[in-house]
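Example 3.2
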Amino acid sequence: MMRKTIGTVLLAALLTACLPAAQAQGFGNLLRQIAPALPVPGLAPQPAQRQGAPLALPNLSETSPEQEVAIGKQLAGDLLGAVPLVKNDAVQAYVNRVGRWVAAQSERPDLAWHFGVLDTMDINAFSLPGGYVFVTRGLYQKLSNEAELAGVLGHEISHIVMKHHLKVLEKSKLVGVASSLLSSQVSSRNALGNAVAQNLLGNGAEAVARGLDKDAEYEADRMGVVLATRAGYEPYGLPEVLEKLARMKPGDDGMALLFKTHPAPQDRLGRLGDAMQNKLDRYGNGKTVEARFAASSGAINAAR
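Structure, written as tokens:
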């Protein structure tokens, strides 16, 4: 079991602030071993780890936060035009509360984060530039507690924090032109309906839908565990979800897209176990919050 492999951990949201300085420094070192690119609250990031540095891609301008949000908003609108949200305000509000709390532990807490449950039985989760995160009804119904939800959301939040999708778009040479078009439209307060921008962003959505490379997915797994445990949840949430998915097959109902856009769950589970090992055993157990999640799960089952 992954629970035995990675040991027992308690990383409450404000743990580093409550620990003595020497112990907090040790905690930070452990986290850097698991997710080296993710600085620890209260500890200065190493120069090579600082966020916001220009991307090392030739002949492409850096995308501003405003442009990133505009691109994500357009792509999210296109997605929701094809697949609506589950029609249950309580469920959507709950997922936003959990997601925003986990995102608050990240290096981009000030983004206008948006979370939603999509009304499809496909088993998957998605994130888009600028703070847009979606979980499908099919995946939601596979979860057992809030810690698992936090782990899934933490993985997707990590993609946005590390700007993985923007790197895909920039490598496809779409984001530079699309960003400039969007920037000019935003500055003039026009709607994002320009036909050229729509076409470019449509191509961008296709590039994002093809999935990120394996290293980005493995990095998001490591960082997702860190973010969820910073928020006070047990760190086993995401590994336990991966265990469930590893027992399923690509041909099972709702699984085809997940296998197309992510590495195999067993590969992700193995990489995550190798990264964590027993480095965090000393911190005990975090929270799973079964009762609160059960209420939301009942609500989503009732929503049709």
